[in-house]
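User: My advisor asked me to double-check a structure prediction for ALA-interacting subunit before group meeting. I don't want to rely on an old file, so could you generate it fresh from this sequence?
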Amino acid sequence: MYDASSDIYECMKRYDNVPGDQATNRNAPVTVIRLQLTEDDCVGKRKGRGIEGPVFVYYRVEKFYQTHRLLFESRNEEQLRGKIVTSRTDLEGCEPWIEVTDPNSTDPTDPTSSYYGKLLLPCGMFAKSVFNDTFEFSDAAGPLRVDTRAETISWNTERKHKYHNPPNSGRVVEWLKTYVPTSQGEFNPYRTDTGTELIFPGGIEDGHFMNWMRLAGLPNFRKLWGKINQDVALPVTVTIQSRWPVKSFGGEKWIILSTVTWLGGRNFFLAYSYFIVGGCCFIFGVFFLIRHWTDYRELGDVDFVALSQPGNK
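Assistant: Sure, here is a fresh prediction for ALA-interacting subunit from the sequence you gave:
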């Protein structure tokens, strides 16, 4: 296991603290960040001059608690399975992210508003907090094609049983696939900076969305974003459209390129665990062996057996 993890070549770099250019179009604020991944950002064993494909693209988030009760309970499983849920009682757990309010209306409760009364799908703060940064990669040979299909980056069981787009309905707004006015006016953080391309074109069935909705047990976690099915030459230029805020909770964002082995990604936890357990077993084994030699007791020794006599209690 240790050798398998050591064979993985992984490059990672923090980018939330890198200055970038602010977009000036209608979908701003978006910060466009450009950085390079070089050999100094990489660890592990490398074969050849570059990274041997396939190369997996991950993003890493630090100090974000997906397990916080107010966050992970703010979701509706029936909605995620493709059911149109219109009962306010059933959607109470999604408060306050349940319905659309039209920012262009002077009265957000005005029944004439084109969005008034329409429910958000999916609802809840967990879905609303979905990671929406996007990445583009290039090396010396030119742009790198990243496979971000749901079939490539998500689990088959989740695609079959947990996440499905709903049938068409005029009572809900599928905000992952629809341009929806927000409290910031024309800004829609779920489209690219040009406002013409969706970040989650598959809606609930989008691979990036499904990966985000899979609960991370620790505050520092990584999630699969894409796969590059070719060798990659270093240095790699990464262009990032940064939308997902971390400053408010003191978090960090990292971009990762990594190879894999039969054990998965680079993780020494299992190997170190086996080393520790094996070492403890060896120490206890030596201890009991020495005790057996120094305080030997013959088999069948009756000196320590208390025999009761008839009539004695």
